[in-house]
Amino acid sequence: MTSRAPALDRIRVGSAPDSWGVWFPDDPRQVPWRRFLDEVARAGYEWIELGPYGYLPSDPERLAAETSRRGLRVSAGTVFTALHRGPEVWEGTWEHVARVAALARAVDARHLVVIPSFWRDDRTGRVLEERTLDAAQWRDLARQTERLGREVRERFGLRIVVHPHADTHIDTEENVARFLDATDPELVSLCLDTGHYAYCGGDSVELIRTYGERIGYLHLKQVDPDVLARVRAEGTPFGPAVAQGVMCEPPAGVPALEPVLTAAGALGVDLFAIVEQDMYPCPADRPLPIAERTRAFLRSCGV
């Protein structure tokens, strides 16, 4: 058995509905929520995320009962935002955020993963807005994200972790650095998704070394470099790229996860490392074997 390195003692591994092909609250092509809970526990995970609001039960007592009887705990909820569009979107954004944050807090989660809106439709590829933000939009994004971090902390006791994501405005090394440099570390941390960051050309280990104090949460995934090269060359939107297998089962892709975990462990802070292997849509029998193999692989990495 691989011994657990002291530097990795504070990393808590989990998985998410995303690793079971779940992207939407309700979709007949997705695994039913009870099956997800049964299988994620069977695969050896203790921690989960809520996934899209409405997929898992939104009644806190029922959700707590369903998770606890399977030995599961919730690490975070997830929201999508478009805060670069200015103060006029705040009211609608907060209505959604507050609903998710309340549920997350009720089941003792401590984080809220914040994903920026897509600049092109993730399924059709239709361009929704400019790919690059102007200076005013960057200011709105920074100030409103800080406001979100403050409000979520004060009202719900949660910490927001912003998730750089393919086909959004927070994606590449340059844009991630610009966002971090523009926001208050006391209010805004980062959810480093190793797969999305690699998808957009970033080096996760270097990001951890450079902005270690801003890393508040991890999503673990890998990309298939051959598929990535093809979808980049063809300008494929993120959704179809996932359907083509751009996100792959570790350790078959990049980045190598053991150096990422080692770098994260060296920070000496408590971190969640949640497995998220994008594969929507997928056959219902596919996720569990992958999840079991992935959990075994991560144990071999020391977590």
UniProtKB/TrEMBL annotation:
Name of this protein: Sugar phosphate isomerase/epimerase
Organism equals Streptomyces sanyensis
Q: Known Pfam families for this protein?
A: AP_endonuc_2
Could you tell me one molecular function GO term of this UniProt entry? isomerase activity
Highest taxon listed in the record's lineage: Bacteria
Where would I find the Xylose isomerase-like TIM barrel domain in this sequence? 37-278
UniProt keyword Isomerase, yes or no? yes
Print the organism lineage. Bacteria, Bacillati, Actinomycetota, Actinomycetes, Kitasatosporales
Which keywords does this Swiss-Prot/TrEMBL entry list?
Isomerase
